[in-house]
Specification:
alpha/beta, six-stranded mixed β-sheet, globular, 16 helices
């Protein structure tokens, strides 16, 4: 989905909600008429039905190079300011499904909110389904949502996923057994459902439609919210959400083919150099030359088994995966410190190296001991 298509999709859902007073009594013919009108007609026709001017949408799409990036629905190059958001906490239920376990126990769930653009009580609510990380990191790198909120006069909420950031149900003991048992997708979805419902009451916004946004795992949560709580969520926009592959469907190798293609597109020789370096590492592992592996990659300790080398493989592979996922034309810092155009930087690094294994190390980065 391109940036423009993503914007049109959200506007279509909002208009559909207004035209039908919600989705409770909607005919397939009505959906098709509105869909044809919004997704097929030109922006000029779009403007004639009192929708915002799409010139800013086209600029947004151009800046985003036609893509809604993974890991966070952002990518327009627009940087969100911390001053736009208020940081708040919500007393969230510990266990939504077993009240015998922790009784009426609650924990403080963090969320960020801005009503800077909101038509109070009337405008829609854009709700980011937080994924695996500090919620500030996602909010400050998701300019697409705030730009669209300005167009649609929307309230924006970024909710932090339980067990991440400052939303720790049991504080420092959150990752012990059995406390870690409440870290599930179902609990996280229920958190968001409760949070949305209560905030709508507090803000006198019970009539405001809710559109959920998310990227990667967060995108999966957005899809699941729409499926599981259709009475709460009007629409969902999921960027790079691996719903199909996570369900065990499709080709499990396709993701890494796409990662490889990113580097190959920049320079076909880059792919060959990376494969050559991995083959050298594999040959050293077969010879059990663990001392050489430790020296070449500046490891904190010398590997002693194939399992150790497999861990190194995973670290190196994930480095390339991260660079492909965050291959933005500007530097990013929300999933590690990456330069602008990291795929280009990585390829130039490995292609300019004389020792392939050390070049592979320099490309991915050294482990901190």
């Amino acid at each position: 989905m391109t940036g423009t298509q993503a914007v049109l999709f959200v506007l279509f859902i909002l208009r559909l909600n207004r035209e039908t007073n919600g989705f409770l009594s909607i005919s397939p013919d009505k959906i098709k008429r509105l869909s044809d009108y919004f997704l097929v007609r030109s922006p000029e026709v779009f403007n004639r039905v009192n929708q915002p001017d799409l010139s800013s949408t086209r600029a947004l799409s151009s800046q985003a190079q036609g893509a809604v990036p993974p890991g966070g629905v952002g990518g327009s190059g627009y940087r969100v300011s911390e001053t736009q958001f208020q940081e708040k906490y919500f007393q969230q239920v510990l266990d939504h499904f077993n009240f015998n376990s922790y009784g009426d126990g609650t924990f403080k769930q963090r969320y960020l909110i801005t009503d800077q653009y909101w038509d109070r009580g009337q405008g829609p609510i854009f709700f980011y389904t937080g994924n695996e990380g500090d919620i500030w990191a996602f909010a400050l790198n998701s300019g697409f949502i705030t730009e669209l909120a300005a167009q649609e006069h929307a309230l924006v909420i970024f909710a932090e996923h339980r067990y991440y950031g400052k939303s720790l149900p049991f504080g420092d003991a959150s990752f012990k057994v059995p406390e870690i048992g409440l870290l599930t997708v179902e609990q996280a979805l229920a958190d968001y459902a409760v949070l949305i419902t209560e905030l709508k009451k507090q803000l006198n916004a019970t009539a405001s439609p809710v559109i959920v946004f998310g990227g990667s795992y967060g995108g999966m949560l957005s899809v699941y919210m729409r499926l599981r709580y259709p009475n709460i969520v009007t629409g969902a926009l999921a960027a790079s959400a691996p719903v199909v592959s996570t369900a065990g469907l499709g080709d499990p190798r396709q993701f890494f083919r796409d990662v490889t293609l990113d580097f190959e597109r920049y320079n076909p020789a880059c792919k060959d150099a990376v494969k050559s370096a991995f083959r050298q590492l594999e040959n050293l592992a077969k010879l059990q030359d663990y001392g050489r592996i430790q020296a070449e990659f500046s490891l904190c300790a010398t590997p002693s088994s194939w399992r150790d080398v497999h861990q190194l493989y995973g670290f190196l592979r994930n480095g390339f995966t991260l660079m492909a996922m965050l291959d933005y034309p500007y530097s990013t810092h929300f999933m590690g410190n990456l330069p602008a155009n990291p795929v280009k930087v990585a390829c130039d690094t490995i292609l300019n190296g004389t020792d392939m294994l050390r070049a592979l190390r320099d490309t991915v980065g050294e482990l901190a001991c």
